[in-house]
Amino acid sequence: QKEVEQDPGPLSVPEGAIVSLNCTYSNSAFQYFMWYRQYSRKGPELLMYTYSSGNKEDGRFTAQVDKSSKYISLFIRDSQPSDSATYLCATTRGNQFYFGTGTSLTVIP
Amino acid sequence: DTAVSQTPKYLVTQMGNDKSIKCEQNLGHDTMYWYKQDSKKFLKIMFSYNNKELIINETVPNRFSPKSPDKAHLNLHINSLELGDSAVYFCASSQEGTGGVEQYFGPGTRLTVT
User: Fold this and answer.
1) With an 8 Å Cβ cutoff, is A99 touching chain B?
2) DSSP characters for B15-62?
3) Does A39 touch chain B (CB under 8 A)?
C-alpha cells in the first residue's frame, strides 16, 4: 500500500465550478499535509499546508484534513482556466516525504 | 530572480554514461532535496541534505550520489546510466526548522537515456 493515494483523474470542469480534489493516506503518524500545484513541464509549487486536522483557507482554496478517516481534500471555489494543472497532495514524517500521483485538472472557459 | 535553478533543462545520453545535474538555490535555505518524477507523474524523494546530515531513500541505487560544494548547491551525479533512469529530476530546498513542509522546487531536468 502506498503511503498516499490519489485519484489521477483527469478531471474536467466548467469555469466557475467548485472543484474537490482528494487523497487518502495510510499512516496515522503523519501530521503535516501539503498541496502542490504543477503546471505542465514545470516544477511543483506549494499551494498550502495544514497541520493535523482541520481546515485552512487561502483565497479560493481550502485545504481540509480528516485524521479520523485519513482523508485530505483541496477545494477550489470559482475555478478559473488558470487553475488547470496537476495537483499533488503530500505528507511528511521526519525526513521522509510522500507524494500522491497527482490529479490532472482542466477548467474549461 | 530564479529561486531554485537547475542545469541542464534537458539531458539525452546513452546507457553506461556518467552524468551530473546541477542545482542552485538563492533562498538561503539550509536543506536541499532531489526528487525523481516518473512518466506517471509519481514524485519520489531520493535525498535530503543539510550541512549536518544526508538522508538517503533506501530504494535509490548507489549509482546516484549527491554532492554539495556549499550550502547553496546540491548536484546529482549518476554513474552507469540505465534506461530506467529516464525521468524528470527535480531539485528543491527548504528552510531548516520548518520540517521541510515548505519546499521550493526547481524547474526540473528531463533525462532521457537511450
Assistant:
1) yes
2) TT--EEEEEEE-S--SEEEEEEE-TT--EEEEEEE-SS-EEE-TTS-T
3) no
Q: What's the pLDDT tens digit per position in B67-107?
A: 988 889 999 999 999 999 999 999 999 987 667 888 999 99
Task: Calculate the dihedral angle through the C-alpha atoms of A42, A47, A53, A54, rounding to the nearest 10 degrees.
Answer: -150
Interface contact B56, partner A, CB < 8 A: no
Grid cell 505542465 — which residue? A40
**Residue A44 to residue B107, Cβ atoms within 8 A:** no
Contact B104, B94 (CB under 8 A): yes
Residue B6 has, within 13 A of its CA and on its CB side, a CA count of: 28
Q: Give yes or no for residue B36 having a pLDDT over 70.
A: yes
Q: Do B41 and A86 touch (CB under 8 A)?
A: yes
Q: Is B41 on the interface with A (CB under 8 A)?
A: yes
> How far apart (Å, rounded) are the C-alpha atoms in residues A84 and A74?
14
Grid coordinates representing A58 are 487561502
Three-state DSSP at A82 gives helix
Q: Quick check: A46 and B102 CB within 8 A?
A: yes
Q: Which of A3, A7, A1 minimizes the C-alpha distance to A27?
A: A3
- The DSSP symbol for B84 reads G
